[in-house]
UniProtKB/TrEMBL annotation:
Primary gene name: purC
Superkingdom, natural source: Bacteria
Family: Belongs to the SAICAR synthetase family.
Keywords: ATP-binding, Ligase, Nucleotide-binding, Purine biosynthesis
InterPro entries: SAICAR_synt/ADE2_N, SAICAR_synt_PurC, SAICAR_synth, SAICAR_synthetase, SAICAR_synthetase_CS
Catalytic activity: 5-amino-1-(5-phospho-D-ribosyl)imidazole-4-carboxylate + L-aspartate + ATP = (2S)-2-[5-amino-1-(5-phospho-beta-D-ribosyl)imidazole-4-carboxamido]succinate + ADP + phosphate + 2 H(+)
EC number: 6.3.2.6
Protein name from the UniProt record: Phosphoribosylaminoimidazole-succinocarboxamide synthase
NCBIfam families in the cross-refs: purC
Residues covered by the SAICAR synthetase/ADE2 N-terminal domain: 7-232
Source species: Deinococcus antarcticus
């Protein structure tokens, strides 16, 4: 698998073309950003850890009936994926109030929600990924109705897989962000990554944060937290 031209560079990953037009190589960087890239940092091992966590979870999601872009892990930092057209709508699934949800609604962080909440944001660095609803995505042509329906269904299926998966490993999955893409045949698949960059993970016993909030909020111990999450994700359930 040879890496061709770089197709996109994001805040945490680079996407490269390959000799196969239907496949890309994703490279995970050590860079971290928060608050719409106003805060920047990086630490050694971050890219490798997120690559390993995603590469461990996606095949299990596939086995649970959730189509994904993942093909195989190529190296410490790289994976081979199916090339998709990313739907420019980020999907957030919340189990417990935290972060922007708590701020916006005045709900104390850690308040358990009586049912999962699916939120949508427009994927736009310039605008800071603003909260939208599905009507907005339809009206502005970002997605079709059937695709949004499928995306919501998959997001909730992913939640139903991940919540007990992490619970067995002593981790409370507070919330997470997903990106979906479209294959040439129109199928919607889970793309991007699932990692401590994109999820809130709280230790079930201590409520200690084990995710990017350690970076956002300057809590320290970030490398250790990511390494511990990799250890737990790959532990037997
Ligand atoms: N299978 C895929 N095909 C095409 N693009 C993808 C795929 N998986 C992820 N991407 C895109 O790769 C880009 C790089 O990732 P990342 O660094 O996380 O970007 P961002 O700064 O937008 O979060 C993102 O825009 C993401 O949507
Ligand atoms: Mg990203």
């Amino acid at each position: 698998m040879t890496r061709g031209e770089m197709k996109y560079e994001g805040k945490a990953k680079r996407v490269y073309a390959t000799e196969n037009p239907h496949e890309y190589v994703v490279e995970y960087k050590d860079d971290a950003t928060a608050f719409n890239a106003q805060k920047r940092g990086s630490w050694q091992g971050k890219g490798a850890t997120n690559n390993a966590i995603t590469a461990h979870l996606y095949p299990q999601l596939e086995a649970a009936g959730i189509p994904t872009h993942f093909i195989e892990k190529l190296s410490d930092r790289e994976q081979r994926v199916k090339a998709v057209t990313i739907v420019p709508v980020e999907v957030i699934v919340r189990n417990t109030a935290a972060g922007s949800f708590s701020k916006r609604l005045g709900v104390e962080e850690g308040t358990k929600l009586s049912r999962p909440v699916v939120e949508y944001c427009y994927k736009s660095d310039e605008l800071g990924d603003p909260l939208i609803n599905t009507d907005t995505a339809l009206a502005l042509g970002w997605a079709e109705e059937k695709d949004l329906k499928r995306i919501r269904e998959l997001a909730l299926q992913i939640r139903d897989f991940l919540v007990p998966y992490f619970e067995k490993r002593g981790v409370n999955l507070i919330d997470f962000k997903l990106e979906f893409g479209k294959l040439p045949d129109g199928e919607i698949v889970l793309a991007d990554e699932i990692s401590p960059d994109t999820c809130r993970f709280w230790d079930m016993e201590t409520n200690e944060k084990m995710d990017k909030d350690r970076f956002r909020r300057d809590l320290g111990g970030i490398e250790e937290a990511y390494a511990e999450m990799l250890r737990r994700v790959t532990a037997e359930g």
